Amino acid sequence: MTMRTLAPRTVRVDLAGRGYDIAIGPGLIDRVGTLAAPLLAAPRVIVVSDETVEPLYGRRVAASFEKAGVKVGSVVVPAGESSKEFGAFGRLMNTLLDARPDRKTTLVALGGGVVGDLTGFAAAVLLRGVDFIQVPTTLLAQVDSSVGGKTGINTRHGKNLIGAFYQPRLVVADTDVLDTLPRRELLAGYAEVAKYGLIDDPAFWDWCEANGAAVLAGDAAKRSYAIEQSCRAKARIVAADERETTDLRALLNLGHTFGHALEAETGFGPDLLHGEAVGAGMTMAFDLSAKLGLCPAADARRVREHLGAVGLPVRLRSIGGSNRRNWDADKLIEHMRGDKKAEAGRLTFVLARGIGKTFVTRDIDEPAVRELLDAAIA
Ligand code: NAD
Ligand code: MG
């Protein structure tokens, strides 16, 4: 028996009546059809992918469905965030309807978080709701966006402001497809992996410090472990707070208030990927926690050192492309206020009492934040 035929690792997401499995492991891209077939309402799927991912993996996914006796259609959208725009979404819906789906047709999202968010939302509203399956192909999508049921698109008012909580029937995460992912995208996803350790799992953080470099270098077993632990962490939090009604799910936003400000200031563009912003943001959240005397300075140092050592940009100076940006604390604070996590203008932060000991707070004095930013900019 070869590795390829071993049962994948499985993480169950427990949601009353809508629970589903996440299958994780090498070689799964060729087994999507077999894994999905028993769950389909009818033997018909439409695979949605992007112009980068489709040529790499589209044929193999389609073949796996055909082998399982499932009829396959395909829609390809441009790669990148622009496919989550309102207009692009409208075009996708019409293209899907051109294929004459019925309520038993299942959509398959083959790609990163963009394709997953877009296809999930399309599934939520196509014919008032059809099933969908996630085949995430970026590390970020495998450990974050494909788990938890948040789907959505962007408008000129901001990202993900139109969407639905809509759970997939199955998630299939093939660790091999990460081999073709650009290094920067891989690192950006790794920031979200390490985040789960920092939130509430110090043992997993220790593991990341020891094994992060191997995960990034392509060690298959360690990749599977990192993805499995991440999915377990997110699944546990989502099962307890599916619709973000308590502060529990908000812990997943560790690093995201600072990160959002950095992303807003760099125009949500290629200068700073979301995961890179989260990496820098987590470093700042731990620095702020240490500055406020909440968290040992040594813990904040560990966060900065590990994320920096794997290659994430943890210093503001290193962010913003070759032109060193003139960061402005006032502007960054303004962006934090505009963040959808801010309630009634009060800044919301996830801070820490140590590694693996985070909490949500809305009681942080702005001068402390400003001082921290001024020091980081200097
Ligand atoms: P992405 O989907 O844009 O993928 C990044 C790039 O990598 C794209 O150019 C893509 O074509 C390419 N790519 C994907 N897989 C590849 C592979 N295996 N080999 C080579 N190239 C590959 O970006 P992302 O980082 O995966 O996702 C970002 C999106 O996810 C954002 O829109 C964000 O809002 C969303 N998101 C959603 C949630 C959620 O809970 N729903 C959580 C986090 C992020
Ligand atoms: Mg994130």
Automatic annotation (TrEMBL):
It is found in: Cytoplasm. Its EC number is 4.2.3.4. GO terms for biological process: amino acid biosynthetic process; aromatic amino acid family biosynthetic process; chorismate biosynthetic process. Zn(2+) binds at E192, H256, H274. GO terms for molecular function: 3-dehydroquinate synthase activity; metal ion binding; nucleotide binding. Binds 1 divalent metal cation per subunit. Can use either Co(2+) or Zn(2+). Catalyzes the conversion of 3-deoxy-D-arabino-heptulosonate 7-phosphate (DAHP) to dehydroquinate (DHQ). This is 3-dehydroquinate synthase.
